[in-house]
Amino acid sequence: xxxxxxxxxxxxxxxxxxxxxxxxxxxxxxxxxxxxxxxxxxxxxxxxxxxxxxxxxxxxxxxxxxxxxxxxxxxxxxxxxxxxxxxxxxxxxxxxxxxxxxxxxxxxxxxxxxxxxxxxxxxxxxxxxxxxxxxxxxxxxxxxxxxxxxxxxxxxxxxxxxxxxxxxxxxxxxxxxxxxxxxxxxxxxxxxxxxxxxxxxxxxxxxxxxxxxxxxxxxxxxxxxxxxxxxxxxxxxxxxxxxxxxxxxxxxxxxxxxxxxxxxxxxxxxxxxxxxxxxxxxxxxxxxxxxxxxxxxxxxxxxxxxxxxxxxxxxxxxxxxxxxxxxxxxxxxxxxxxxxxxxxxxxxxxxxxxxxxxxxxxxxxx
Length: 366
Known about the structure:
This protein is of the alpha+beta class. It folds into 3 domains: 2-170, Transcription factor LuxR-like, autoinducer-binding domain (Beta-Lactamase, 2-Layer Sandwich); 174-285, Beta-Lactamase, CATH 3.30.450; 293-359, Winged helix-like DNA-binding domain superfamily/Winged helix DNA-binding domain (Arc Repressor Mutant, subunit A). 44% of the residues lie in helices and 19% in strands. The protein is built from 15 helices and 12 strands. It has helices spanning 2-8, 14-24, 51-61, 67-74, 83-86, 89-92, 96-102, 138-173, 192-199, 219-231, 293-301, 305-315, 320-327, 331-345, 350-359; strands spanning 29-35, 44-46, 81-82, 109-118, 121-129, 177-181, 187-190, 205-208, 211-214, 241-245, 256-263, 278-285. It has a 5-stranded antiparallel sheet. A hairpin with a 5-residue loop joins strand 6 and strand 7. It starts with a helix and ends in a 7-residue tail after the last helix.
């Protein structure tokens, strides 16, 4: 049991847990397998499987209609089945799946149980015995049925852990700065973009003894917003508190800093170990549009290259006449392009168009 939950928590490999279960049932093989879309090698967790067989399972048998998988998918979740109760053994042994996948790996009689269904995928556990071994009996079936709740719980823990790891990875790759801030503005975690923005001279924020401190007159306001967000539950305060810190020009580039403070989950959802914290999001608000903005607009609105350049120039603050001059086109041509742009965006006025285009600026790492 320790090995099973250790695998769920990432302390040991799942292959070690599978091998422990195989030995417990004196099986010739055992595996966890996912059935569903986009099957890959990672969806069959087993011990000692020849890479050739693993490849053939993924490439040929995982999505191929065969007696074993068809019967397995119809089986009741949370109940243990043997070969004799799950399908017609004679029909199975005439199939290519059994002759080319199961028999060469000495899978002559097994127990099977569906552990978990999520969306369009099914996770199952399967343990097999070899040709010279006795079939699984009532004692083994009862034991696996007793272990089934633990298998299910371990799979759920593993899934939650994988989700948390994916979210953590996304946290560090976000194209804007984000910090998790606790009591007294103590920084619990932050991504690289936040660290880069805080290290810029004149940013209006700095890290002081591990705390987020504003160097402007807004420090008290920011401190109060973080304190309120830490103790609030989502829905108890506005989605975010926003504050703009004006920054001086640096290296010919002027970028003010927008700060958004928002609460995280309610502590009752996490239990006594939860430390109240707030999320502080930092975004650089630059007056200039990002490079390649016209290409970005083409991809979103299906503009022609000329239409995209005109839209980008208008978004940059140019009048229609000056935008036409920049593109070296007639004013009448620019008006024609603008009509096309209105049609493709659903806008009717130039001011509405500019507001829309600025709202679809790409998220970029600063």
